[in-house]
Predict the structure of RNA-guided endonuclease InsQ/TnpB family protein.
Amino acid sequence: MTEAARTCSGIALEDLGAIRDRVRLRKPQRVTFHSWAFHQLGTFLAYKARRAGVPLVYVDPAYTSQECADCHHIDKNNRVDQALFICRNCGVVAHADRNASRNIAARGEAAWIAGRESRVPATP
Ligand SMILES: [Zn+2]
């Protein structure tokens, strides 16, 4: 958070409701734990971001772990295992979490820019 404030950047998070729904479909027994954890994390980050004056946006989490952050090719086979990402299109090799976080950051930036533009009155 200090890093985000110092560098005048923002923070993007996957939409929490959608994550909870995805988890529920896969592992019913763990729903309570996951939804509690994600909710706590989101609330905590929102509080810290507001105090630090750092923009916080929630983004559509669809395919963030399957999309290549470099060429934006989406393929479920890109995600080799929990840790490894190899793009089937451009061949880039990355840590899966690092790749997904780059996608989330890019979507956050796009959402932030779109939000700013939407507040500009439309010209007739
Ligand atoms: Zn790629």
Observations:
- Residues 63-124 form one domain.
- The first strand starts at residue 11 and ends at 14.
- Residues 68, 70-71, 73, 87, 89-90, 92 surround zinc ion (CB under 6 Å).
